[in-house]
Specification:
rod-shaped
Length: 139
């Protein structure tokens, strides 16, 4: 190989390196702007998510405050209503609530208790023992 050919190769290599450098330097500004736009879009998205999350938390707090206020108002009304009731009415009210909770017919249960009370028998309650307990097969 002679020097002229070496110089041609050197010039070709130098030209290709210069071309690559020009491409890199030419695209640097657009790459930097693209990176900045992506970062700004991400920040805007995170900000929107934070706003939605904050609004959701405020709605939860508002619902809890509303429930607490409503509960206090209802409790106050129930306390006044019960404090003005005679004891027998309170017991009937309690028995009706127990019948509703256990799924029994409140009117039927109340009528049975009134019949038992009038005949001298004790009214049936949740905790009372059955009249005839079953016999144990082991004894």
């Amino acid at each position: 190989m002679n020097t002229k050919e070496n110089s041609n190769y050197s010039n070709n290599i130098t030209d290709s390196v210069i071309a690559v450098n020009q491409i890199v330097l030419g695209s640097a500004a657009s790459t930097a702007m693209a990176t900045m736009y992506i970062s700004m879009a991400h920040a805007a998205g995170v900000g929107a998510q934070n706003a939605v999350s904050t609004q959701n938390h405020l709605n939860i707090i508002g619902s809890a405050a509303l429930a607490a206020g409503t509960g206090n108002i209802l409790w106050e009304g129930i306390n006044r209503q019960i404090s003005n009731m005679p004891l027998s009415d309170r017991i009937k009210n309690y028995e009706q609530m127990q019948a509703i909770i256990t799924g029994k017919d409140a009117a039927q249960d109340l009528a049975e208790n009134e019949t038992n009370t009038a005949s001298g028998n004790e009214p049936k309650t949740e905790g009372s023992k059955p009249e005839n307990p079953p016999e144990n097969a082991d004894t």
